[in-house]
Each structure stands twice: as structure tokens, then as C-alpha cells.
Amino acid sequence: MPLVDYGSSSEEEEEEVFSLDKKMELKEQSITKRTIQDDSERVPPKRIKIALPPLPNSLTDLFRDRERPADNPERHQGRTRTRAHIDGSWPVHVYLEVKLSSELFDIVTTLIKVARKSAPGTVSLLESIASKNSKNTTPIEAEASEDATELHISLTKPLYLQELHTGRFASDVRDAFKKRKKFSVSFSGVQSFANEDKTRSFLSLRVGSGHAEIESLVSEMDMIVERYCQPAFYEDPQFHASFAWALGGNVLNEDIVDTMTELEGELGHDLRHCSITVRRVAWKIGQKVGSVALS
């Protein structure tokens, strides 16, 4: 009886395995192709920009006194900065406040009018408080002593301090003068000056009585500025309160001062008898102003 050849079971299993592997391969290819197609057709979502809320005024105004205005001579009556801005360095000036009486105000306004006849570009330093507070680009001259900003008698040269030293410096000045006494100052005449780089000239009231008291304050200030490696005041100081300026180191010169001698008889006596009381030592650091009252 002949034997029936049924074939090997292992061969059947191999065929089934091959068939299964082929199906898996085709399936993977199909999935891969579909994934590539899906990725190529997918449109990336649009990004929505969300505007941040504005900062409150309490934050935006926090460092406003540290803002440095642009150096624009057109906004400063032609004046140019003598030293470029340096980050972290601030200009400093220490001075006495001279609040004008109505009589002294009238004398100074007359002197300014005389100066303008020879130098029409003369700028008055008797600025209106109202115009200064409104921050007008062009200062408006005061029409009465009650509305006039005070004049200054300098106790230091122009100084420059690092920001980390400014607070300590102000405290040193306050401590040095808080027990000093008020004193009187009068003026003996008119004098012309020029700044160190000869870019501007000034007309000033020359200090008469009160010179010794101011010299004592300057000696105290010299000791303070030395701690900060800053220059001492001028040798043989000529204390004065400037009331007008002009562009150019020789515009408001001695010739113009001489023209004022014609007023000596009329105004000289009144000027020498206009005594004012110095009540405060003040300082300006950048845009910040401080002062200490004399006792």
C-alpha cells in the first residue's frame, strides 16, 4: 500500500511565518507613508501674541530722577555739556540759596537791561518759579521777586560722584552744617566771570559782608570733597551770585561792567545796603535737590 506524502509541517509553519512577516512589513510601510503625508499636510498653528499689561505709574516713576536728558543745545539756549555722560557718575553742586528781596530784585533786573544793550543775547537767571515748575523749554523771566527763583553762591567747584557715594555725600554735608548759624550777606558791586572752558560768561553780584562766613563753609566743604577725591574750591575765592549769562567766554566782560558804573551813584548805595539772610545750604545731585537749614 503506497504511502501518502503529506508534506512537512515545518514547511507550512515557515510559509505562515513568512506570510505574517510580509503583512507586518506592508503594514509598517503603509503607516510610515501615511505619517509622512500627514506631517507634510499639517499646518502649524498660529501663535497668538498676548500684550502684556502696562506697568503702573508707581514703577515707571520710580527712577525718573535718574533719567539723563539728551544733550540738545537747542533746548538749553545754546548751552553744551562740558562733560559727556558717564554711566554711574552724577554731577554735584553745593551752594547757598540767595532769596532776593523786592529791592534787590529791582536792582538786578535793571542791571540785566543795561547788559542787554551791549549784549542782546544776555540770559537772565531770574527765572519764574511758575515757568520752572511747568518745565517750559524756554525759561520765562520772573516779573516780581515773589515769583523769582533764588540765586546761588557756590561752595564747591562742579563735582562728579559715583552713584554709590551720593547718599553718603549728602549726609556728610547735612551733618557738617546742621549746627551752623544763619548769617547775613551784602553785595559790593558787579563783576564778570567766565566758566573754566570759556564757553559762557556771567555777570555776578560780588559778595561784600559775609565773606568770612562763606569762606568758613568752603573750608568745611573742602574737607568733605577730599574724602571723595574731588577738587577743592578755587584759591583766593571771589564769592559771588551770578544773575545773567551769555554764550562765549568774553561776551559779558569788564567793558560791560564798566558801563554799569554810570549807575553806581543811583544803585550802588542801594546795592551795598541790600542785606539778605542766608538760611540754607543746598546741593544738587543729578536731578535731585536737597538742603539743610542753618540754625
What's the structural blueprint in terms of helices and strands?
Blueprint: H1 9-41, H2 57-60, E1 89-98, H3 102-118, E2 123-124, H4 129-133, E3 151-154, E4 159-162, H5 163-177, E5 183-185, E6 187-194, E7 200-207, H6 211-227, E8 240-247, H7 254-259, H8 264-272, E9 276-278, E10 280-285, E11 288-293
Antiparallel strand pairs: 1-3, 1-4, 1-10, 2-8, 5-9, 6-7, 7-8, 10-11
Helix pairs in contact: 5-6
What are the key terms here?
295 residues, 5-stranded antiparallel sheet, 8 helices, 21% strand, elongated
Can you describe this structure in just a few lines?
36% of the residues lie in helices and 21% in strands. The protein is α+β, with helices and mostly antiparallel strands and 295 residues long.
Molecular structure report:
The protein is elongated. It has a domain at 89-293: Cyclic Phosphodiesterase, Chain: A (Alpha-Beta Complex), CATH 3.90.1140. Helix content is 36%, strand content 21%. By secondary structure, the protein is an alpha+beta fold. The longest helix has 33 residues, at 9-41. The strands form three sheets. Strands 1, 3, 4, 10 and 11 form a five-stranded antiparallel beta sheet that branches. The chain has a four-stranded antiparallel beta sheet with strand order 2-8-7-6.
